[in-house]
Amino acid sequence: NISDELLGKGWTIYYSQLPRVIKQEGAPAVKVEAVNGNFFRMSPTENFTPLAPGDSMRITFRCTYKLDRNSHVPEGTYWVETMDGKEGKPLPVALNALPLPSPESVGGYPDASRIYEANLRLADAPALKESDLLPSVKKAVRVEGSLVLEGKVAVAYPDDFSVEASLLKEKLAGVYGMEVTEKAPVTIVLEPLADKEEAVNDEYYTLDIDNNRIKISAAASHGIFNGIQTLLAMLKGKQAPYQLEAVSIQDYPDLSYRGQMIDIARDYTTPENMKKLIDVLASYKMNVLHFHFCDDEGWRLEIPGLEELTAVGSRRGHTTDESQCLYPCYDGGYDPDAKTPGNGYYTREAFIGLLRYAAERHVRVIPEIESPGHARAAIVSMKARYDKYIGTDPEKATEYLLSEPEDTSRYTSVQYYTDNVINVALPSTYRFMEKVIQELNAMYKEAGVPLTTVHLGGDEVPRGVWMGSPECRKLMKEKGMEKAHDLSEYFITRMAGILQKNGLKVSGWQEVALGHTEEAHRQLRQQTEGVYCWNTVPGSDEVVYHTANNGYPVILCNVGNFYMDMAYNGHPDERGLDWGGYVDESISFSMLPYSIYRSLRVDMAGNPVDLDKAEKGKTALTEAGRRNIVGVQGQLFAETIRSFEGVEYLLFPKLMGLAERGWNAHPAWESLSGAQEQQAFNQALALYYEKISKEEMPYWAKNGINFRLPQPGLMVKDGNLY
Ligand code: NAG
User: Fold this and answer.
1) Which of 307, 457, 483, 712 is found 20 to 30 A from 323 (Cα to Cα)?
2) d(Cα 140, Cα 252) in Å, to the nearest integer?
3) Sheet with 152-156, edge to edge strand ranges
4) What CATH code is carried by the domain that includes residue 215?
């Protein structure tokens, strides 16, 4: 008590923390409890003795999950006092971070990259050729000659490629300081491929450099765009005047879907930063941005007619009734109007602008409406609407309601929410979902960008949901359903119908394609564009090939290799989660889309995994299943991220492995075994690290991208080493 008054019982301390379940022993004087999710409160019990000025006390509690890294310690702490039965204003409280053990004191932290450092020493560091890029090009033949790009350059192109040409000119002028003129010593020619049959797919291109000309040919504009990215990548590690060796390149991706998911619900990323990211993704020939704009802790997109979604659902701050804003989870800001990483949304206009920006760079934006679980922000927002109108306009109040006031179901979600699942029996639920889908459709239309699918989420519906809902009970009886999963199936089937009616297909996390009746599978298969297999920790990764064999198009985003929100390693200063292991740039690189059981070569302690054993007896990919592997995707869930710099830190350089594997799904070691396999892997890895450090890192440093050096605890920012 640092005040000069006696501290009585009318106070509460609020804070957020990731490790969740709290146990207290005995009869504590101060009770620590979850308000909801990872938002907690401490308040005095009847055993609390008022604290005299200058006195202090210790409050002890236990978390069931380890609290061993800085991104997990309590944060956003504030104090609220109650006087005369009224709550006072929240006040920030200074917090001394927990003393975490130093790496030295426990003999170092397990670091997954340890084994790779050993591999790197084994393989000779190769000398880089000009055409050694990320992602690697399929075929490059060095020919006689060279050219110099200096001062002036000309770009020649037909109308069909004018968008690509103007982006090229922008980069040449803006990043490489060249003047683009009508006539110049060197001309960059963009032209249709002479023999269209040659194009393996829409993204195929050829790039030919001779003494005074650079020629990029493709059957489609996407191929031209890819060729331009290759040309720009060849300039990356160089200084003006840019000397380029003559070369003939033929290149195309193996997988048509190469995406990155960004979670702006937990941590808000502005449209400007998102554009910066899209530009970088596109430069590595990634072609999908999975836009995770809503979840339990936020709704980040304006939907005309559903103002509460953003008025309430995009703001987090101190509240006891959530009619104005959501609880201050994660970053714990007590002021809902403050500019914190927990507040913000994309206006309709900003989103349309983003869609156009992405489309110009051949990046598709796939929107995700998280449902029926992970939907707390939407549920709370629609409840606020209900409360607002129930007295005056009951029809309006219930029109889009997502929860049933009489529902007594008790459940706890993986993230410890007790009220984050949409009620799937209410007609208003389907009205809400269709309304959002139609508004999304309208935004894409206005942007002039096609929308083919909406990702419906579908993950982590906790046990216990819906069972106490009178409406769900009624529906179950009517339809002869027996268990909660039947309701999940009902939801996804009905949603597939709504999407179809609106000209769209279903995408969703792996759960949407699991556990159905044969009849439901038959229908869903045809209505599905992508099943995102995510929860594939070693041992349960069979879901991936099972789903592909079962006829669903699969996107590989398995946690073990591609969850960029996993920490780089166990060091306390490395932010991130670790429920699926550690993920660094070597682990994303190790992924084998067609040999998934051999994709994790080290365990969390950095020890080698016995790959033959890991693969033994597992579900194999059938021929039909092979054709269903459509792509790869990185995930960046944002529970531990607090800024855009944090986004970049977790993506760079991990993203390089993802981009490489999406483009080249059959690396040399895939078809080898034993010592030969190990040697081929070592060589490829050495070349990969060489590219990252020689070509990419200097470029990131120059262009203000916050990245992590492939060594624990070091990073470069604005050209400086920290
Ligand atoms: C899972 C959740 C996600 C969470 C993430 C953290 C999926 C599909 N679902 O528990 O909401 O943020 O892991 O890594 O990943």
Assistant:
1) 457
2) 12
3) 139-149, 242-251, 205-209, 213-218, 187-192, 152-156, 179-180
4) 3.30.379.10
Tokens of 12: 């509460």
Say yes or no: 143 and 102 in one domain. Answer: no
414 ligand 1 Cβ < 6 A: yes
Those residues with Cβ within 8 angstroms of residue 432's Cβ, 6 or more apart along the chain or in another chain: 306, 378, 382, 400, 401, 402
Q: Is 563 in the pocket of ligand 1 (CB under 6 A)?
A: yes
ipTM rounded to 2 decimals: 0.99
CA dihedral of residues 553, 559, 560, 566 (deg, nearest 10): 150
Nearest CA to ligand 1 atom 9: 459
Atom of ligand 1 nearest to the CA of 457: 8
Domain housing 44? 11-106
- 26 and 95 housed in the same domain: yes
Site to substitute for ligand 1 among 292, 297, 460, most atoms within 8 A of C-beta: 460
Sign of the torsion formed by the C-alpha atoms of 584, 590, 591 and 597: negative
Cα distance between residue 431 and residue 596, in whole Å: 40
Quick one: 78 and 150 in the same domain? no
Q: How many residues does the chain have?
A: 722
Q: Do 76 and 162 belong together in one domain?
A: no
Q: Whose CA is nearest to atom 7 of ligand 1?
A: 459
Gap from CA of 414 to ligand 1 centroid (Å): 9
Share of the chain above pLDDT 90, in %: 79
How remote is the CA of residue 568 from the centroid of ligand 1, in Å? 17
Query: For residue 579, which atom of ligand 1 is closest to its CA?
Result: 14
Distance 279 CA to ligand 1 centre (A): 26
Verify whether ligand 1 is closer than 6 Å to residue 670 (CB atom): no
Instruction: Extract the residue ranges of the chain whose pLDDT is less than 70.
Output: 101-125, 536-540, 711-722
Assigned domain for 485 exists: no
User: What separation in Å is there between the alpha carbon of 375 and the centre of ligand 1?
Assistant: 13
Write the residue with the smallest CA distance to atom 14 of ligand 1.
637
Closest CA to 203 of 218, 217, 193: 218
Quick: pLDDT tens for 509-555: 999 999 899 999 999 999 999 999 998 654 568 999 999 999 999 99
